[in-house]
Design brief:
Strand order of the largest sheet: 1-2-7-4
Shape: globular
Helix content: 40-55%
Number of strands: 11
Number of helices: 15
Distance between the termini: 59 Å
């Protein structure tokens, strides 16, 4: 049975993606028109099969291979092979080491005070700016998330954290700007030279931390580099892992917080319920302890509903290593399977009125009534995000710090439009009016 989908185009599908406003919105349209399994032209991979039904996704959840061409843009950042497309036999043990740190409570607790201090610094700055006009959430919050993951990935040993942030921004601007053809000032030669210097600085910074572990002056195994040294990974692989961890976490946490504040600004009743919960759990304290996060159950539901509506990473991809059957369709080995997370999260068969913001979808009872893969903001299977648990800790901590102190309201006249920029970005940022909770709202 032929897999439904649009007719092939001479341009390989580039024009169709552009006309839809990006690959994520294109996927929504494809699945609305053709159903849960769609064959389409995927720029960079010729054709792909996109699956938006969580039950059908189960047949692909075991796949541990990514299509190399789709992740080739990350290769220049790696010295020990592109970490995003490692063969399964090499990827599995490396993943176990990452999970032992990134998903572990000891590591979260060890860095929690530093994360809290960084979030509080941002809250203090916003407090000083209150009443002076809208705040650009994505700009400030992605900078915060980069500072947090930089401190985490480098163990707090970077001698110049601001330079690390600036260097990583330089690398991102060059490589992601290339991928999405974002206009960047200066000549190509000058940009490439700046990016090369920034990348060299980041690698040298990681080398210093690695050397400290090898010398025995650092013995804590709850940080990322320590665990990789203990596992016997070679220095180039450790450097690459630090950079990839920073890349994966840089935008995602800041974007998730931004979209959540945007949605709460549009739904003041939910925002009030979050504020009441924070007051009940924290009392007079302005910041949570690590243990408090488990008690912020409504905030957790709000974050999950926000990531359902605006998943930070809107899609993923795998390559079949053996034939399989999806919804009656035979899929040969070597096929690119496309995971349109946004379309999965908007599937009306599992999410009634999917466009609506309803945090109560994530009560334990509601979750138990849905297929396991109906909600996949961090991907699925052995290539899902190793940092998912850490990302949730960071996201909920930052939101708790900000929402305990401030009220957020949409800036009048500012339109928020999702666009594709590696993550699900807002085209002209998310601009909001920020005021202390005890003060009268800004007009």
């Amino acid at each position: 049975m032929r897999i439904p989908g649009p007719e092939p185009r001479p341009d390989g599908g580039v024009g169709a993606v552009a006309a839809a406003g990006g690959l994520h919105t294109y996927q929504l349209r494809l699945h609305e028109e053709y159903g849960p399994v769609v064959q389409f032209q995927l720029p960079g991979a010729d054709t792909a099969v996109s699956v938006a039904d969580p039950v059908l996704l189960e047949a692909t959840a075991h796949i541990d291979k990514r299509p190399e061409r789709l992740f080739a843009f990350l290769a220049p950042l790696c010295e020990a092979g592109n970490l995003q497309v490692l063969p399964a036999d090499e990827h599995a043990p490396w993943r176990r080491v990452l999970l032992s740190v990134l998903a572990g409570r000891p590591s979260h607790e060890r860095h929690f005070a530093q994360f809290t201090a960084l979030a509080t610094d941002l809250a203090d700055r916003w407090g000083e700016q209150a009443g002076s006009g809208p705040v650009a959430l994505q700009k400030d919050l992605t900078a915060l998330s980069l500072r947090m993951i930089g401190a985490y990935a480098l163990g707090g040993d970077a001698t110049d954290p601001e330079r690390v942030v600036a260097a990583f921004e330089e690398v991102l601007t060059e490589y992601l700007g290339r991928l999405y053809q974002v206009p960047v000032p200066g000549t190509q030669e000058a940009r490439e030279e700046r990016a090369a210097q920034a990348l060299a600085y980041l690698r040298a910074t990681a080398d210093r931390v690695i050397a400290a572990h090898h010398s025995g002056s650092r013995t804590d195994r709850s940080d990322l580099i320590g665990a990789l040294v203990e596992a016997g990974e070679r220095p180039a692989r450790i450097r690459d892992t630090v950079l990839m961890t920073m890349l994966a976490a840089h935008h995602t946490t800041g974007v998730a917080v931004s979209w959540t504040l945007h949605l709460l600004g549009l739904h003041p009743e939910a925002a009030g319920r979050v504020a009441d919960e924070l007051d009940g759990v924290l009392g007079d304290r302005t910041v949570p302890d690590y243990a408090d996060l488990r008690r912020l159950t409504y905030l957790d539901m709000v974050v999950k509903e926000s990531m359902r509506l605006f998943p930070p990473g809107p899609y993923g991809a795998r390559e079949t290593t053996e034939p399989l059957v999806l919804g009656g369709h035979e899929i040969p080995a070597g096929t690119t399977i496309f995971y349109p997370f946004w379309a999965v999260h908007m599937n009306p068969d599992y999410w009634p009125a999917p466009q609506e913001f309803v945090p109560e979808r994530f009560t334990p009872q509601q979750v138990a009534g849905r297929p396991r893969l109906a909600y996949v903001p961090f991907g699925i299977g052995p290539r899902s995000c190793e940092g998912a648990a850490l990302a949730m800790v960071e996201t909920e901590l930052v939101l708790a710090v900000l929402l305990k102190r401030f009220r957020f309201r949409p800036a009048p006249g500012h339109e928020v439009t999702p666009v594709e920029r590696f993550v699900l970005w807002a085209g002209d940022d998310i601009r909001m009016l920020v005021s202390p909770r005890g003060a009268r709202p800004q007009a």
